[in-house]
Amino acid sequence: MNGQTLQIAVYGKGGIGKSTICANLSAALQASGQKTLQIGCDPKHDSTKLLLNANIPVTALDYIRSTPQVDYKLSDFLFDGYLNVGCMEAGGPTPGVGCAGRGIISAFEMLNSLGIKDNYDAIVYDVLGDVVCGGFAVPIRSEYADLVYIVSSGEFMSIYAANNILRGVAQYDAGRPRVAGIIYNKRNLPGEDERIEAFSQVSGLPICAVFDREDAFAFAEEQRMTIIQMGNPPHLAKQFMDLASHTLGAKRYPAVPVTDEELEERILGTTSPVWAPNQNPGPATSRQTADIEPSPKASPAYKYLSKNMLLNEPLHGCAFNGAATTAIQLTNCKVLAHAPKSCSYISLASITSSGRRGLFERGSILPASISPNFASTDMDESDMVFGSTQKLKDKVASLMLEEPPAIIAISSCPSGIIGDDLTTLPPMSNATTKVVTIEADGNLAGDYLQGMLMAYTSLAKQIIDPAAPIKDKTVNIVFEKVIAKNTKPNFEFVRGLLEEMGIGINCRFLSDTTFESLKNFTSAPLNILAYADYTGLLLKSFFEAEYGSKFLDMPLPVGFHQTKEWIGKVASFFGMPNPAEQICERYEAIYNQQIAELKKTLSGKRMFIITYNSDIDWIIAACNDVGIEILKIALPNFSQDMGYRTKLASNIPIEEHYDRNKRFEDERELAPDIMLSTYVNETRYALVSDTIPMCPDVGFLSALEMLGRWATMMEAKQNTTEPSWRNDAEVFRKVFSGVAFTQASRQ
What we know:
single chain; 747 residues; alpha/beta; eight-stranded mixed beta sheet; 29 helices; 14% strand; elongated
């Protein structure tokens, strides 16, 4: 931009005659010696037709859609009209698809990159005024419009649109007045002169041109030319030449919109009635009330909210990513991300991270999270503008050739913003492949956990067969943490316990499972939560409400006491106590032997705990067994859970919503021997420190590994005269060597 180009944005309600006025203004500016460009910013792309003798040019957006960026040339979509007025149309998508506002942004970005402003003295932007989204507001941003005209008749809805335009201009004025005034295009309606005068007064804007409704405009359109080109009638041609002169020295006014109520009062001389609560609301209001209080069969995405969404907290992660991570656990299905490459790549990297970590650390092969059946529509700029529902359907059709049992299509932010319709996909299902959808819409729908909930509930409702035949002595495991390091060994341990009691696993919802397994979810007579946190309990309520599912009243157990109780409850449900008693007796001997050994070092020690975990009874129970005194439990806010669930901490001080900045002050005052926290493994005052796993190992002996570490660290620090820092390397070799109690806990 050369800094001298006069940029004029002309806004007005659709059908108000704005394009005709713009074309004549551009011709008049060119006739006045100003090299002028007119840019049509309406998807109808008919702004410049009078300057081009009704020829319809290639639009900028059609050009962007068909041309690689490196090949962009102005001459391909910039045309010379009457008197060599530059003519360009931004264009837009087919009505009902895509995002025309995003199209305007794309077109302007391309024009900037090609330096189009450097070639003209004046640019006239012809902009649709009924739509006030960010895309259509681009021409009134400070880097574009120096001058803004508003075209209006005396009709109230035209004035209403003009007031809305002032609201948009006011957003970008930043103390720099830019509105030149009102161009009054008459409709010869009763009282319109009074209404436009009233609007001029209330807005503080002058009426800088008045055009009567004359047959000459219709005749000029039939001749496919402007009034300036016809030169007839002379008074109209002079009016446009005067308007061109006005633009070159126009005074600028601030945009001062008024409220809708004030507009009605000042323009119509009336006020709108206000509905009172004791009045009959009528059918529309009754429907709104029904929407606010959904029935038990309401949409799962509406009914089941993550903690962040429920409490209006900052979002943690992206719903699209959470939905994709969950859906990929149906290992024999195809997951299709309706998203740009970047979104798909980030989600794929997130999904595979846990599998890659397991492979590198332990040699574990997790196909669902190392090589998932993941595809993408690879949305691009053109899709954002013109819509990509057909592209999505074509991709689904190509995936169906591989004959997976299901294709799971997930929407992202971009596809959600432009309104691509996923409801067209399920009818594409055939006898081999079922097409299901998750309308996650990225951050528009919520956080990562909300995406998981949407995937859980959507997949369940679209795939589960409520009439699946019952399989005796089987259970479903619900809500394993698919990104936890120990999910696989935890499952294998639980499966071993259940098999020893003659019980099989029907479905893992949803972790490394299949379409058929999910379809037959209701075959299992008993369901067991892996974690009874906020999300786990929400899923429990979902299955109880939708399918009448029965749940064990304990999640997968951690620690000796929980595991013994859990096995007893499972055995009682299926009526098989003998195997359960034998299992418990075997582990009890091991547990008691190791507790007796640990007491020698840990008895009488004092502990301070800071934890995000809502259930640490397995730690409290083990500490009680070896004689450790717990001084305090502090609970900071956690994005995935709320509240604190315990049966054993009745005599322990508990501080919820804990400020982590108090940690070292509290540690100094409490003087613990052991500092236990969820993430930060450091201490200034305690003898040893350790971390609480967010997802602990299940089973009888899981707590003993932690207690064994504490004992080893204490013994190493106490049995040396060297400064503790010199001994740390040896301590860590002992503690994290993989021996001690780790092996016993998995036997």
